[in-house]
Structure formats: C-alpha cells, structure tokens
Amino acid sequence: NMANIGYEKLAVADSAVGLASIPSMATRAYIQCDTAAVRFRYDGTDPTTAEGTLIAADGSITLKGEDVLGAVKFIRTTSTSASLKVAYGTVGAGIESSMDAI
C-alpha cells in the first residue's frame, strides 16, 4: 500500500493555489474534491475557471512525481469554493483513481 506520510485540507477559492504542506518524501498525492468543482494545471501556467483539467465535485485524482506536486495549482470553477482533501504518499502500490494516467 501507499505509505501515507501526510495529509492536508486545502481551500480552493477564486485565486490559483498550490499544495501547501507537501512532506519532503512525498512522491504521490491522492486528492479528493469536495463541495465544488476545480480546474488544475501543472505546466507553470495558472488554471482559470475555464482553462485546466476539471475535477468534478466529489471527484478524485492521483498525482505522481515530486515535480508535479510542486507545480500543480488549483482554482474553483464557480462562485462556490472547493475543499480538497489531500493524502500524501510515496512510490509504490496505493490508491489509484479512474484518472490514473494524469
């Protein structure tokens, strides 16, 4: 199983925000989106309400790689702020989602 080495709850409002509490050994993050949909990008450009990959409310993704964890930013898509629940882990077997290819 993925070694769980950290957790954070991240509020996503109308400004792009990155992950705030990445543990030093983390190479994966399992992210569950609550309350409202968000968009994310990890190519160095901030997402907007219309540009970026969508995570639906109640959706989840697994991000892999220290560079991705450090670069990813999120923004809400509507006037309702979202809450992301983020479980950090290390390389190996672990939780995967239907969007595992990202």
Short description:
6% of the residues lie in helices and 41% in strands. It is mainly β.
**Secondary structure tally: strands:** 8
Low-confidence stretches: none
For the biggest sheet, the summary is:
4 strands, antiparallel
Q: What is the arithmetic mean of pLDDT? A: 89
Q: In angstroms, what separates the terminal alpha carbons?
A: 20 Å
**Measured on Cα atoms, how large is the radius of gyration?**
12 Å
| Strand percentage | 35-45%
What strand order characterises the main sheet?
Answer: 1-8-3-6
What overall form do the CA principal axes indicate?
globular
Structural class label: mainly beta
Number of helices: 1
Give the fraction of residues assigned to helices.
under 10%
Order of helices and strands: EEEEEEHEE
Architecture overview:
- This protein is mainly β.
- The chain is built from one helix and eight strands; from the N terminus they run ββββββαββ.
- The radius of gyration is 12 Å and the shape is globular.
- The protein starts with a strand and ends in a 13-residue tail after the last strand.
Strand-helix topology:
Blueprint: E1 4-12, E2 17-18, E3 28-34, E4 38-41, E5 53-55, E6 60-64, H1 66-71, E7 73-76, E8 82-89
Salient structural properties:
mainly beta, four-stranded antiparallel β-sheet, 1 helix, globular
